[in-house]
Amino acid sequence: MLRPRSSSDNVGIADREGAPGSMARPDPVAARAQLLPVLIFLGMVVAVVSSLGAPMIPTIAALDHVTLATAQWSLTITLLVGAVATPTMGRLGDGPHRKAVVVVSLAAVVAGSVLAALPLPFAALVIGRGLQGIGLGLTPLAIATARDHLPPEKSRSAVALLSITTVAGVGLGYPLTGLIAERFSVHGGFWFGAIISALALLAAILVVPASSHRPKRRLDVSGALLLGLGLGTLLLGLSEAEQWGWSSPRLIACGLVSALLLAGFVVRELRAAHPLVDLKLARNRTVLTADVTGLCAGVGMYLLLSLITRFVQTPSSAGYGFGSSIVVAGFVLLPFSVASVVSSKVVPILARRTSPDLVLPFGCTVLVVAMATFLLAHGSLWQVMVTMAIAGLGVGCTFAAMPGLIVRSVLPQETGSAMSFNQVLRTVGYSMGSALSATVLQAHTAAHAVLPSYGGYQTAAVLGLSTCAVTIVISFFLPRVGRSADVDEQLVRDSVDAAASGTFLYDDESHPLRGAAT
Questions:
Q1: Residues 2, 505: contact at Cβ < 8 Å?
Q2: Where are the alpha helices (DSSP H) in 185-220?
Q3: pLDDT by residue for the chain (518 residues), tens digit each?
Q4: What residues contact 383, with CB distance under 8 A and at least 6 apart?
Q5: Cα 439 to Cα 254: distance, rounded to the nearest angstrom
Q6: Burial 139-154 (b: 16+ CB within 10 A, else e)
Q7: Residue 480: what are its φ and ψ, rounded to 5°?
Q8: What's the DSSP call for residue 469?
Q9: Within a 13 Å sphere around the CA of 444, how many CA atoms are in the beta-carbon half?
Q10: CA 266 vs CA 13, 259, 286: distances in Å
């Protein structure tokens, strides 16, 4: 039976409002109108900076005299570091030091941007890009901050909007950095990243509120090391598979070591008193659906983005491609950003007129359509731009729905950790998609040739299409496994509405119902 929510039911709401008896106190900084714009700005900056290397990979390869597969590490390393840093930052951010974590992370992003901008060897660029990857952990912290400090009427759209910034910022960052790189060289693009991340650092210092009311949480260092080494070994094997050979002892060793490390991470997290990531939350089918969908959608998203940025810059003498500049390659992806923002308006309408359970399958289906469109129609730039618009709509709908699914299913004090783990899986998906695109194209590059054959793009597109098709099945059927036949559909709708607004419905004293959002 549903009952009215009291102030004792929801710690997060009580803390946010400074209710009597809560641990929090009224926070004048949190009431400022600048908080939400600053959080959105932080998310956009992180997305733009993290994507700086993507449209410039062919140019980086030429300038630093490395292969395209090696140059791809200027993107993959950022995503890899982000995958490791995100859960660590999420756990720290659930405690009293959230603002300090945000500030230190942005300082690392600034330092990494400056290092990448300097005319140093390729190794320095990779290190700088790795430091920039630390910023990928800021989005879950921004979501947790919005939930803690924004009133319900503002948090309704804030959570979904902050989630979409990670997508919209990518599409916005490509044309901006491409334009700067073409006019001022590749290093100019990274100087642009240094400037905007410095502005984000200043804004965070001035506006982001403290979370001193939250209890201190112990950091699981062992878990962080196991996760980082496991993911690093996995991506190293994927990136070097073609060069080493798919049956080489080194590749097999990488696979075995990665499997052992990640298995050790899972065992560690399940047994730890203070885990880096509370994997037990995945027992909730709603959370598990969001996490698995985030991983698979991340693979498909970055696989497609990596393919298209290289495809449009390939000289037409190769038998395909347009020989476009970095600027044109960036603007080709602009529809992706625009459509992803538009999707934030589509999701509530779709949820109300159909079913909240259909939002994720819908987004994944649209992403499959985008993959198929690229596979079948890429003879002109406008066709590629249409593909990116479709992909932006699909990815935007998918990622906009995930925060509501998670927020409505976990307790307020676990929001940062749960969102961080979802972001980890997304970032792992990004990394795998980036590495897979380089591996597949390298496999279709003849000896002593620079460019892959057209068949490489076809193979990679089919791989991405298959991944997204599997995601449709997972997102549609997994939440229904074991579901009672008498589930009240209106309850599901109400709960989805509750998550978006930050208002939570409870069926007992401690456990939120499936849905959330009013």
A1: yes
A2: 186-207
A3: 334 333 334 434 334 334 333 334 444 444 457 888 888 888 888 877 776 766 677 778 888 888 777 887 887 788 778 877 877 887 777 667 788 889 999 999 999 999 988 988 889 998 999 999 898 888 778 877 887 777 766 666 677 677 667 666 666 666 776 777 777 777 887 888 899 999 999 999 988 887 666 666 677 888 888 888 888 888 778 767 767 877 788 889 988 999 999 999 989 988 888 787 778 777 778 888 888 888 888 898 888 988 898 899 888 888 898 988 877 877 888 888 788 878 877 877 887 887 777 888 888 899 999 999 999 988 899 999 999 999 989 988 888 778 777 777 777 667 666 777 787 788 788 878 877 888 888 888 887 777 889 999 999 999 999 988 888 888 887 766 544 333 334 433 444 444 343 333 333 333 333 333 32
A4: 373, 377
A5: 15
A6: bbbbbbbbbbbbeeee
A7: -90, -10
A8: H
A9: 15
A10: 32, 11, 20
Residues facing 517 on adjacent strands: 498
Between CA 374 and CA 457 the distance in angstroms is 10
Dihedral class, residue 502 (left if φ above 0, else alpha if ψ from -120 to 50, else beta): left
Q: How many CB atoms lie within 10 A of CB 170?
A: 25
Tokens of 263: 């298995």
At residue 365, the 3 state secondary structure works out as: helix
**In terms of Cα–Cα distance, which of 116, 115, 114, 110 is closest to 134?**
110
| Residue 195 in tokens | 């400037």
Answer whether 516's CB lies under 8 Å from 504's CB. Answer: yes
Residue 26's CB: how many other CB atoms inside 10 A? 10
Q: Please report, for residues 159, 383, 422, the alpha-carbon distance to residue 403 in angstroms, rounded to integers and kept in the order given.
A: 6, 32, 9
Taking CA 289 as the corner, what is the angle to CA 439 and CA 139, rounded to the nearest 5 degrees?
70
Q: Chain centroid to CA 333: how far? A: 17
Locate 491 and state its tokens: 């309850």
Six token digits for residue 508: 């007992």
pTM: 0.70
Distance CA 180, CA 189 (A): 5
Structure tokens at 40: 């959105």
Phi and psi, residue 377, nearest 5°: -140, 100
State the Cα–Cα distance between residues 392 and 431, nearest whole angstrom.
18
